Amino acid sequence: MVMDDYSAAAGPDPAGDLAFIPLGGTGEIGMNLNVYRCDGKLLAVDCGIGFGGPENPEVEVMVPDPTWLAERRDRLVGLVVTHAHEDHVGAVAHLWPQLRCPIYAGPFVSAVLRRKLGEAGLLGEARIVTIPLGGRFAAAPFDLQFLRVAHSVPEAQALAIRTRHGLVLHTGDWKLDPEPLIGEPTDEAAFAALGEEGVLAMVCDSTNALVEGHSGSEAEVRRNLAAIIRGLRGRVAVTCFATNVARVESITRAGMAAGRQVALFGRSLRNAEAAARECGYLTDIPPYVPEEEAGYIPDDNLLIICTGSQGEPRSALAKIAADTHQQIALGEGDTVIFSSRMIPGNERGILQMQDLLARRGCRVMTADDHMVHVSGHPARDELKRLYQLVKPKYAVPVHGEWRHLTEHAALARALQTTPVLVEDGDVLQLAPGRPEVVEGVPTGRLAVDNGRLLPLSGGVLAARKRMLFNGVVMASLAVDGAGRVQGTPQVSAPGLLDGDEPLGPQLAAELARAVMDLPSALRREDDALREAARGMLRKAVGRRLRKRPSVEVHLLRV
Ligand SMILES: [Zn+2]
Questions:
Q1: pLDDT tens column, 490-525
Q2: From ligand 1's centre to the CA of 197, what distance in Å?
Q3: Taking the model in full, what pTM does it have?
Q4: Is residue 58 a contact partner of residue 464, using CB atoms and an 8 Å limit?
Q5: Cα 547 to averaged position of ligand 1 atoms, centre (Å)
Q6: How far is the centre of ligand 1, averaged over its atoms, from the C-alpha of 88 (Å)?
Q7: How far, in Å, is the centroid of ligand 1 from the Cα of 32?
Q8: How far is residue 429 CA from its own chain's centroid?
Q9: What residues contact residue 557 under an 8 Å CB cut-off, 6+ apart?
Q10: Segment 415-454, tens digit of pLDDT
Q11: CA of 151 to the centre of ligand 1 (A)
């Protein structure tokens, strides 16, 4: 059979088409990886991580499976990164070695990415093309233009993709905020200009499609934080997303205005600070107090900004809550402010952390009871405004779970735009003709396991999940050439049996007897003997503990 690779990449229209192919981030939170195809050439937009959460407790960090894209990398003309959030940029260092294409990004994303690629030892290899904010550039056949948007990170940008088939607007994450505090507000004039030019399709953020009204302004949070912190005594700790530089600046100013010295706790905050200063932000903020000096500052004169707003177990705030932090302790009379929202899946970890802090005597303030956070994503009034400016012919809701995507689609329809719902792996042909899903491509998720990438549904992680819930039984068995048991077999079952439980030796004795009862021909065959021993152990454990553990038998022929 001849593999016609071109038609595999170009779909049913070999003369060329324009298609949108989400490989991650549609119908689930995080792990954004979008692909556009024009006349057989491919352009990737964003490349982010996701977290394992309660569904995948065996995994901490996940990335989209890039196999389909990597197999076509000779047609991949570039990767554009819209902004510096982990769910948009976090997987670049993990997946770039398989993609090896130029990376296009604004200055702040470039600064963040250089650090990440440096840590991964890829800085000399990967080429980052830094595009000025709002800049226009080419990755033929794509004619690309960044548009500045407000979000909860500096320098977020939407991407206008011009092709001979029409113009697609990929919004990335955005909101409308007249006072974003860092950077300019969303460039509504540029969006209106696109609307005049004619937009075929808008691929748009759905995160807050269920939220009525407006997302609120970062400036309001700044005023509230200043008022709250001014009235506090004792030590104050505030946690927020590390890359929300405007928020970090607001907290810092609130602390300084209240006569407090400010310290940053946590590596990701220090990395974000460095990237921000490199790009000309935080210029009138004095250097932060080093972690190791914070403990010597009088309680009423100290404010710490720390990582851990999502309950991350290794974060600074997790250590403070557990009272295991080397440099700082919080307790009676101190206050912890969560200037953040709970990302779905993280609720339990966050609430546990807040509970530990309350038990230490800390007062805990959150966005539920104080106005200390606004979302970086558009609520319904903002979505309406963008649709009015851009007037796209078709709307493709992305970046949300299904209830967000469907609600966004209904809103688009009410605004005279035809919505098209897609899921990861759909090849949505946008032109020529009416948009339709013309084929599916394989997608998947990989777990980042200490630098290795493992398929989430693959053998290693499936075994780990099984062990997590059902335990593991390991037996060592020595036999002679005729299969007669030598000495006493050893059976251990970490996660099932304590070392001194009598069941271990009992199972070992049963195993020895069962092996001696096997036909002598079978006992001479390593594989057959090992299989028989495994089956016997699995049954014996199942009978006694009502579990189906993973069973390993190490057979030693002596
Ligand atoms: Zn974002």
A1: 988 887 887 778 888 888 999 999 898 999 898 999
A2: 27
A3: 0.83
A4: yes
A5: 43
A6: 7
A7: 10
A8: 27
A9: 478, 479, 480, 481, 526
A10: 999 999 999 999 999 999 999 999 999 998 898 887 788 8
A11: 7
